[in-house]
Amino acid sequence: MTTSPPRTGPRPPQHAGTARPEPVARGVSSTADTPGPPPVSGFAFSPFGPLVAEAATRCLNSAPGGPGTVAGSGTAIVLVTTFGDTVTADAVTTALAEGRTPSPVLFFQSVPTSVLGHITRVFKITGPMVCLSELPGAEGHAEATACLLLASGTTERVLLIEVELAAGRRDSPVRTHLQPSAPVPRSDRATATLFHREAPSQ
């Protein structure tokens, strides 16, 4: 996992001006939806994986030319989350505290990039994969990372996924300490945006 500096603002690359992200598609998924995000095989108990998968699916299905255009090494994925899968993390620590053996599934899905593996398999994406932990209110670092990937010359598209689960009993005090002026999230939500180095021809 790549973690952003906790107190330092993002600095876009100097040479990224020719690769400014061009948003071409977007998808949103929330547990407040009716129906909610469908389950994903191999992921259980937590909405984190299904939220990410559904937001990405909605985004890529609406991409110009269809989802087949993102296949291959020309597409990178950037996942941004502050706390990650807090539901799974809580399930693991609670089981350990009670002397129980956590399910092996929990260790697998506790890694934020696990669900990205599912997405790359479904859409045949083989480009770079990056996971960022970004403090609330630190806007810009995710798009700066997209700029870097696009400016590399080897990536044509970046799928940026921002996901956060509703604040729970344990992480709410931490959120308040890190960003006292920012509201804590009250719902589970994921947003996926597909950026293109240049606007694709229609």
Explain what you see.
By secondary structure, this protein is of the alpha/beta class. 30% of the residues lie in helices and 19% in strands. It contains 6 helices and 6 strands. Strands 1-4-3-5-6-2 form a 6-stranded mixed beta sheet. Helix 1 (48-61) runs parallel beside helix 4. The chain is globular and about 50 Å long. The model is unreliable at 1-19 (pLDDT under 50).
Provide a concise account of the structure shown.
The chain has 202 residues and is an alpha/beta fold. The protein is built from 6 helices and 6 strands; from the N terminus they run ββαβαααβαβαβ. The termini are far apart.
Main β-sheet description: 6 strands, mixed
Estimate percent helicity: 25-40%
Q: Uncertain spans, ≥5 residues at pLDDT below 50?
A: 1-19
* Number of continuous helical runs: 6
First-last Cα distance? 36 Å
Shape: globular
Query: Element order, helices and strands?
Result: EEHEHHHEHEHE
Main structural class: alpha/beta
Strand order of the largest sheet: 1-4-3-5-6-2
Quaternary state reads single chain
Evaluate the radius of gyration: 17 Å
Strand tally:
6
Q: Percent of residues in beta strands?
A: 15-25%
Mean pLDDT: 84
